[in-house]
Design a protein that fits this description.
The protein is an all-alpha fold. The chain has one domain. The chain has helices spanning 10-28, 38-46. The longest helix has 19 residues, at 10-28.
Length: 53
């Protein structure tokens, strides 16, 4: 994400943690391409980071 740790709300921190867990799981199981758009999909679905676009 493009937010600094000070700008992250508890909700965004939780989403970031879940993303990291999902990405690690997918990469360990050979799904490297599946992680490319994962963070963007999560941000779009939750309206996160719209101020930078």
């Amino acid at each position: 994400m493009t937010l600094s740790p000070n700008e992250m709300t508890p909700y965004i921190r939780k989403i970031q943690q879940k993303f990291d867990e999902a990405q690690t799981f997918l990469e360990k199981n050979g799904f490297h391409q599946a992680t490319k758009g994962l963070l963007q999909d999560i941000q779009d679905a939750n309206g996160i980071d719209k101020k930078t676009r």
